[in-house]
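Quick log. Single chain, no ligands specified.
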Amino acid sequence: MHILAGPAELGAWRAAQGEVAFVPTMGNLHAGHLRLVEEARRYAPAVIASIFVNPLQFGAGEDYERYPRTWENDCAKLAAAGCDALFAPAVEDMYPQPQTCFVAPPPLADELCGAYRPGHFRGVLTVVLKLFNLVRPQTALFGTKDYQQLALVRAMVEQFALPIAIVGVDTVRADDGLALSSRNGYLSAAERAEAPRLYQTLAVLAERLQAGERDFHRLEQDAAAALTGAGWKVDYVAVREAGTLAAARVQGGRFVVLAAAWLGSTRLIDNLETAGP
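-> predicted structure:
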């Protein structure tokens, strides 16, 4: 696996390739990331991943400084998964001067997670666009666990007419249902045992939608109360239209149920898509 430390090395590698598939990450890799790399092989003869902990998407008081950096393990995992190249720029490579130009996200970026992390998706879309311009992939793969991020990236690519196919890959879960996440490592043993409740709560909500219930506010309240009663601090539970994350409609065909909640000092997110009866 080629390790490309900066844009110049990336450019030289990229010039020697044809079509490439791209998996952007912030490192601290788990099986979910590796699934993206494995899937990427289906879309192009060359697969490149990136590791970059992007300061633009972290707000004041968030975990930028303590976000896990596990460089040697990440490199070994990517190589074993068949990744051809890893782009691992430093902050000064990505932002050689203060970033004063940003992608302005649509209103969706201020809802759900965006309501609790102001500016987060502006930082995400800005760095993703910059990575796309540097890597010039034909296909980019993202996990559906970050459902809102995926929807916003798709909107950006479509509206800027970027020649990139965006592929969403299903969430990888532990045996007990917990969505794999780099932040799961923050959980204590007791919190880790409790954490699957988030998925279980969403599964109950999805079952009620499948059974024909359409009082979305009541469904959201019940799910939030179930988490709060178990000691969670809930940011939101929401029922939305699948794909677009528009407000759910009673006659809607497919829904996605989403939640973000704190377990101790760790914020976890998850979602499930579901159809009506």
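The mean pLDDT is 96.
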